[in-house]
Each structure stands twice: as C-alpha cells, then as structure tokens.
Amino acid sequence: MSKPSNTDLVRKRYNRLAFFFDALETPVEWFRFAAWRSRLRNRIVGKRVLEVGVGTGKNLPYYPQGVNITAIDFSPLMIQRAQRRASVLGTEVELQEMDVQNLDFPDHCFDTVFATFVFCSVPNPVAGLQEVRRVCKPDGRLILLEHMRPGNAVLGLLFDILNPVVVRMMGANINRRTMDNIRRAGWKILEAERLSSDIVRWIEAEPF
Q1: Could you give the number of structural domains in the chain?
Q2: What's the confidence (pLDDT) of residue 24?
Q3: Does some domain include residue 69?
Q4: Considering the entire predicted model, what is its pTM?
Q5: Which of 9, 145, 165, 197 lies in disulfide reach of 116, CB 3.0 to 4.6 Å?
Q6: How many Å apart are CA 183 and CA 190, to the nearest integer?
C-alpha cells in the first residue's frame, strides 16, 4: 500500500476537525477574527470572485452583495458545514470540493481571490499561491488574512518548537514564512498591514 500524501493527511485531519472546528475557535473569533473578516465586504472587487479554503464558511456573512463567488475547500466535511451555514444565512455561493494546489479553473478567470487563515495549512503553500496566480486576472487582486512565523528570533524559535504540536491539534502551521512564499509564487505585495504584531497580517497583492 502506498504511503498517503501530505495532502491526504491534511485533508483527513480537517475532516476530523470539521464537527467541532467552530467551537475550538469561538473565543478568538469573537475577540479578533470576526472584525478582521468584516473588511472583506469593502475590499473584494469585481464580478467573479474565488474564496480559497472556505472551511465551515466563517467568511460567508461578510460576502459583498452582487458578486458571483465560488468557494472551495479540499475537505468534504468542511464543505458540508459551509453548505449548512450558507443555507441558514441565505447566502448565494457556489461551493466546490477542490484542492488549491490543483485548481480546476481556466487561466485568468477571477477578479479577486481571497483566503483567511488558509496558507498556514496548505501542504505546499507556494504551489497553491502559484495556482491562485494562474486563475487570477492580470489586473486582479489577492487578499489574504494570515498568521505566520514572527520575525523576532526568540519567538520564531519558540514557534518552530511548538509547531508540530499545534499541527497535530489544529492542522495549521504557526511557523510559515508566508510573506516570502507569496513573493516566491509571483505576487507583488501592495499592502501588508500588521494586525497582531507581525504574526497576523492583512495582505493584498497583484500578479507580476
């Protein structure tokens, strides 16, 4: 029997987390995340938009009106939770099970692509960001809300040490060098606002 890929392992981890994922994050969602997510209403532009890593649908309440949004996730159980939330909210969204590392969309078809706290868990984040660049229009925009490895040497080392434990518990890496990954994938960073020290940032970028 072949060994499961990293993608398969991460998918299984999020399938296991799907049922109680919202409960795990409720305190921090109320305290910080919801306010940061609400920015999406005013920053998403264009008629065709892609959300990567929709998860349980936490961004659905912040979708702007009059926009055709497709939302993907590679966890089928997360998609099920998002479908329920969309039904309760009455939000129109096309939900698809799909891996950001291998998007089933043509080149240059989305005006805006956005993700919140996603590229900390994508097995190959640079490959995922390259795929996002491929499907984004040349004059399009990437919006990310991400946590990442702190720049402070001591804190960075601590995050490196704790990362294996956090990955097992929550599925997310806390020591990703996301700013470097974005640039390596061919994006020009236009804005990188620090929301919580340099650990959580609001990022906007455009394709090179």
Answers
A1: 1
A2: 76
A3: yes
A4: 0.93
A5: 145
A6: 11
- Please give the pLDDT value at position 1: 45
In a domain, 160, yes or no: no
- Angstrom distance (rounded) from CA 111 to CA 136: 6
Is residue 166 included in any domain, yes or no?
no
Burial of 142 (0-12, 13-18, 19+ CB in 10 A): buried
Residue 129: its pLDDT value, please? 98
Write down the residue that tokens 């099970």 correspond to.
97
d(CA 102, CA 98): 8
* CATH number of the structural domain spanning residue 75: 3.40.50.150
Evaluate whether residue 162 is within a structural domain.
Answer: no
Range of the domain at 140: 6-148+175-207
pLDDT at 26: 81
Side chain identity at residue 94, one-letter code: E
- Alpha-carbon distance of 8 to 173, in angstroms, equals 16
CA distances from 10 to 21, 23, 80, 144 (A): 14, 20, 17, 20
